[in-house]
Amino acid sequence: MSFRVWAPHAGRVRVRVDGTDHEMAREGEWWSSDVSGSDYGFLVGDKEDLLPDPRSLWQPDGVHRPSRVYDHGAFAWTDQSWTGRALPGGVLYELHIGTFTAGGTFDAAIEKLDYLADLGVTFVEVLPVNSFDGTAGWGYDGVLWGAVHEPYGGPDGFKRFVDACHRRGLAVVLDVVYNHLGPSGAYLDRFGPYFAGSNDWGPGLNLDGEGSDEVRRYVIDNALGWLRDFHVDALRLDAVHALVDRRATHLLEELAVEVEALSAAVRRPLTLIAESDLNDPRLVTAREADGYGLHAQWSDDLHHALHVALTGETSGYYTDFAAPGALPRTLRDVFFHAGTWSSFRGRTHGRPVPGKIPAHRFLAYLQNHDQIGNRATGDRLSASVSPGLLGCGAAIVFCSPYTPMIFMGEEWAARTPWQFFASFPDPDLADAVRTGRRREFARHGWGEADVPDPIDPATVERSRLDWAEVERPGHREMLGLYRSLIALRRTHPALADPVRDHFEVDAEGSWLVLHRGSLRLACNLGTDPVTLPMKSERPVLTWGDAKVRENGVHLGGESFALVQLGE
Q: Burial code of 8-22, b = ≥16 C-beta within 10 A, e = fewer?
């Protein structure tokens, strides 16, 4: 077989295969050697440091050890009849393989897929599964982007998971991180000009400087590999606002073009979903309309408006969302900051979303891994918000025109926190992470003892879902509500209608009404009862002290009613 590696400025490169060194021949900026073997690594220049393959597909012994040859053709797929899923009308379920089950592996997660299919979700979004140093972590500190984390089950384990999802009609979204590399095992710069500057999380990639053509190819090939070779259906692109690219054609647009071509070749929809802090609708504007051509993006403004309305928290980036009418305005416009002043940033921010952009291109959620895990104690909404308000929040998300997303356990109001955790073996790095985390929250008034130690294995254990909760009182009823809301999006097409011109919101004080065709979702987020006059209505779904009467809808405190209007 042929071993190849990009090392444009090296004067010498060797490949060590199964313990034996072999000189490699230069081919322009690449080096190659035809050798048979299994475990391998590269020695660049005259240094004796053995480095894993930047394009490694398998790291059985961790990110600092040799790579292993992996044959994609050896896996026996059973999803030949899978035709994929388009995003419109879909429901996403975000999960972390390591804490979704007690086992923390792909195979253990497969045992819960029937539950997800029965719940009614259509897309399973998996937090990053690329190789990172240590055994436990969120996955955003990956350093070998094409190799699947071995403790989860390695590349074959991930393929078994994807294959099992497809058998149940579930599409798979994989979270990928191209904006930085982790702090341990990031050897790319030993091979060539991969890095250019850094951001809050680590070294960033050289996307527009000298030598950046191959770096961009590295990113795009990685993305295509997940979609083609692992049969993944969609990619969630982490924090694309941190991608520094000043070229005329942005990396994201280039990626969208190549994914569109691959989609035609494999004959199934392939979806790109961005996480962005830019509030720039051009990301999800079609390329023929001079946009980047991505298919969707997370909308944190929708989350923030809902969070403030449900919790009353107004610190940090939540401050502006305490303004009167923030929730109905954001529900209508997608972005609260749309060329308007942001006190958190100290400047104007964002731009308006054109009315013709369909709402399904924006994801709506009450919770996600960031908004829970980046709180000091990793507490979920269920730790501080009443069941009545949790139900109202869920109803607003699922009855909005946006694409709903659930974070694992949210659907039964899980009480387990989801905290920040890592397991770097290097004691100095581990201590730096621990200290940095505590200092960060000390600036916001938290005591050191209040912030969980991210390196302590107990932090991971606390963050695992407790599946026994599903059958307990309170949790069981919340799960039933989520099942009903998801089912209603299928049985009432108006609820999934993504045309924003068809969507209206009325609000005053503590109540708001969402107009969805002939359906009305009436919510009371306050504690005092209200009666809203509606003509000739019949109940479809109620929560809390909500009653449909001849003179309208009576809403007790923290309740909602979804009603069908008559003639």
A: eebeebbbbbeeeee
